[in-house]
Amino acid sequence: MATALASDLTTLTLGAPLALDSGKQLANVELAYETYGELNADKSNAILIFHALTGDQFVAKTHPLTGKPGWWDRMVGPGKPIDTARYHVICANVIGSCLGSTGPASAAQDGEPYGMRFPVITIRDMVRAQVGLLDALGIERLHAVVGGSMGGMQALSFAANFPGRTERVLAIATTARHSAQNIAFHEVGRQAIMADPDWEGGDYYARGKGPEKGLAVARMAAHITYLSEQGLTDKFGRQLQDRDAKSFGFDADFQVESYLRYQGLAFTDRFDANSYLYITRAMDYFDLAEEHGGLLADAFREASDTRFCVVSFDTDWLYPTSESRNVVHALNAVAAPVSFVELSAPFGHDSFLLECPALDRVVKGFLG
Fold first, then answer.
1. Which residues pair with 307 in a beta bridge?
2. Residue ranges of the domains in the chain?
3. Binning pLDDT at 50, 70 and 90, where does residue 252 land?
4. Which residues form the AB hydrolase-1 domain (predicted)?
5. Which residues are annotated as a binding site for substrate?
6. Is-catalytic flag, 316?
């Protein structure tokens, strides 16, 4: 089970209960967030970055649990594409997560962790909470919202549901709704967690040990979807751990097996299994067209004066370029100003997180 974070996180408690799409309300919502760069006098230089499924607010700061650099450290900082010498960057941990914002591990009104009593949440609920954060910070209109993967879903949802609150939207490697295949991969991961005897119906917090094996398998399965066949072949091929012999058993004979097992086990040190269940379900529920009467173009009708940039990668089979084109076509239908580019990179869906100079140029140019 993920280790508890230090108590010195930057957090804000929303002043009113958060209304959820489920019809329920979530009281005393805490949002943990980080900021980078100075906010100017008229508060016009703020950029809100939305993180992906397993991300957090530590976008450009050493992670307090892993000791590793922030998940987008290569993109955010002084002189970098998202230049903190010029912009005030905000990144908040989404509700439902486990890095300081209110989620299943948080205390409910009875003082005990919510566990599976936590209400069902949606991508729009996550965005609604972060709009509450902006309101508390006194930021009425953003210079831009930026996000990749689930972060891109939030960026699109922000533009659709809170028109006029941002000048620009940069959505990278994302989609306006999950496909049946996306949902299927998530369900494999959820079933792995819930089949672990240590899950105990989600009430594992008092034991100090969660369904680590199930969560590790869920992470392994998901991680495969973030990569590309070319990337896996180039990095691992069919290389054995020991080229001189095969164990002919169930140890990690192949290098790719060892890599996936490491990814799975390392993940359990920083993430909560129940949060994984809730957030993947929120992603599966996401359907921006359905939220607006069934027509995707209608989602953006009130945001036609906002500038959009949509980016996809040619090796991303999780959210392929066709998904980005669907968003672009909807924006074209309402005459919203939109730029679209498909970038070539060998890393699959994770390309937006890795070294990709072409993406750096796009981000810098669009924000500037």
1. 168
2. 11-178+287-367
3. confident
4. 46-353
5. 219, 350
6. yes
